[in-house]
Amino acid sequence: MTIRALFFGHYRDIVSSGERELTLDVPATVADAAAALAASEPRLADLLSRTRVAVGADFATAETPLKDGDELAFLPPMSGG
Amino acid sequence: MVLLTTEPLQPQQAVEAVMTDSDGAYVQFVGVVRDHSKGRSVTGLEYQVYAPMAVAQLEKLVAEVKARWGLACAILHRYGFIPVGETAVVVCVASSHRAEAFDACRWAIDTLKADVPIWKKEFCPDGTFWIEGDEAITAQ
Q1: Model pTM score
Q2: Which of B57, B130, B137 to mutate to test the interface with A (most CBs of A within 10 A)?
Q3: Is residue A80 part of a domain?
Q4: I want to staple A31 with a disulfide (CB 3.0 to 4.6 A). Which of A62, A72, B67, B110 is the partner?
């Protein structure tokens, strides 16, 4: 399956893009997507393990299952306001 | 009501959205871009948002204020580049009495800072920095 990973804050600087398509074996969880990303972007590896995530614009966890076409956002500590 | 926009904010818009004739008070928090941050000189901020989630989270805050305090709340947040002196965020809560309006307004702005997917980048004379929680990370 293919999902869309979204990046914000300085993660976006590391990836040099706001988003990236990821192809994953079925079934896959958020943790599997993070592991795939960490393999291709070593600078993200430590960060992703302690980053909040959202699937479909709602908070999710490492165990959240993914399905084809999902939008998975990696959310650095927030700083609005 | 909730508004996420790149345009300058009008705090009065939030007041008009929440006030009814039964309200005796409103408490409004207005966050303005200042010229310094933790010893750094700041010329402006750029806010990045995950828009669909930010709007949904702001709507949850408004609903939570209604559920917990029974009060109407409006939140406006600007994103993109905002120069020093201009408004970045407005939280307004209307109430019959002031005590619960202060409580609800403070809860809303505190929770916004922690749980709404918005990030600020500081523009300083010696570079730009992502603010992530308490950390400042050099931006590219």
Answers
A1: 0.96
A2: B130
A3: no
A4: A62
For residue B76, the chain A residue with the least C-alpha distance is A81
- ipTM > 0.90 for the complex: yes
Residue with tokens 């927030």: A78
Place of tokens 């202060």: B102
Q: B-chain residues within 8 Å CB-CB of A77? A: 132-135
Domain housing B98? 2-35+49-118
Number of structural domains in chain B: 1
Whether residue A81 lies inside any domain: the answer is no
**How would you write the pLDDT of chain B (140 residues) with one tens digit per residue?**
999 999 999 999 999 999 999 999 999 999 999 999 999 999 999 999 999 999 999 999 999 999 999 999 999 999 999 999 999 999 999 999 999 999 999 999 999 999 999 999 999 999 999 999 889 999 98
Provide the strand spans (E) within B33-133. 36-37, 40-41, 44-49, 73-78, 80-83, 87-95, 118-124, 127-132
The residue in chain B having the minimum alpha-carbon distance to the alpha carbon of residue A76 is: B132
Gap between the Cα atoms of A3 and A24, Å rounded: 8
A-chain CB neighbours of B114 within 8 Å are 78
Give the closest-approach CA distance of A78 to chain B in angstroms.
Answer: 5
Residues of B whose CB is below 8 A from A6: 50
Domain CATH code at residue B104 = 3.90.1170.40
Residue showing tokens 């010229």: B35
